[in-house]
Amino acid sequence: MTDTSPITYAAAGVDVEAGDRAVELMKAHIEATHTPQVVGGFGGFAGLYDASELKRLPRPLLATSTDGVGTKVAIAQAMDIHDTIGFDLVGMVVDDIVVAGAKPLFMTDYIACGKVEPARIAGIVSGIAKACAEAGTALVGGETAEHPGLLGEHEYDVAGAATGVVDASAVLGPERVQAGDVIVAMASSGIHSNGYSLIRRIVRDAGWDFTRDVPEFGRTLGEELLEPTKLYTAPCLDLVTTFNGDPADQQIAPDAPVRGFSHVTGGGMAANLARVLPHGLMATVDRSSWAWPEVFSVMAELGRVPQADLERTLNLGVGMIAVVAAEEASGVVAHLNTAGQRAWVMGEVSEYSPQDVAGAGDDFVQGAKGVDGGGVLLTGHYAR
Prior knowledge:
This protein has helices at 16-31, 72-79, 85-98, 118-135, 196-206, 221-225, 233-244, 268-274, 294-303, 307-313, 329-338, and strands at residues 38-39, 48-49, 60-68, 103-113, 138-146, 156-167, 182-187, 213-214, 219-220, 258-263, 281-286, 318-324, 343-351, 364-368, 371-379. It is of the alpha+beta class. The chain has 2 domains: 16-170, CATH 3.30.1330.10; 174-379, PurM-like C-terminal domain (Phosphoribosyl-aminoimidazole Synthetase, Chain A, domain 2). It has a 7-stranded mixed β-sheet with strand order 10-12-7-13-11-15-14, with helices on both faces. The model has no long low-confidence stretch (mean pLDDT 90).
């Protein structure tokens, strides 16, 4: 017999009231990120941001970026810990903007889930808001979408987009990099948000549970793998202002000491560094200048992962890189360390020809993610 009872939105699996409760729970966290530039408050169809401050720059350029967290969310779901994943989202988005020397102004987020559980959604957004506050970026809006039948009841995914500004004279990038420049590494807080498909496969094949206590970590495997992404926004922007100057006061010279940044995300350190080097120049990176954090050593040994594959996938302890003038390198390292960001010199830039890297094999990377840029040669052995 055919069921003739009416079909409601709730019967289809969407709980509008739960969505409203989630909004109320997250409201205070979002409003805490609002600066005086945020217009109209919370709850509008679109977030409004007063861009009058851009008038202080001679030629302001808008910078934008979007990203997600990837399969790291599966570990957050397995551990039922949801208030740290927001740092991963913000880090992946705003620190891509910083690479151009731009200041992130505002961000929006998107959460898709199988079923709205208000406390869980509020936990995710609280992490996003705390990270935005640390980065000095207003969280001006977002969307939570319930997708029953597409996602499981306890499944969700997150994504975000941000907009920043930089003056045309202050844009950082390959055109500033010169032979003789120095490569400065900034330490990561762990795996960050890239390579988790590899990590989860290693853990699965080893038969490890995320609740397993790992002596090398001093905590459970899941807690270690959920270590939030380090945010580099503040130290990088402070570095640019300190060494290059403020474009509102003066035009930034093409040979200003901070030449560029590379955010080490998907593809590993060498491939991302190659993207910010000009064609014809090569960074020679000394592996012995740092030791891997324990999480990388444990995962590499557990999965018997070849070093070349690790280098193409994980950050191996380096989350952000600065390319700087040689005469300012020691000052840059000291400045970052004083600000609480561990940093060290890891290599230098030089001219090269194909003959110079013949036979280098996996130790040499040139061109990545559609950018026909410079090259990176990895030398030596890690200090682990």
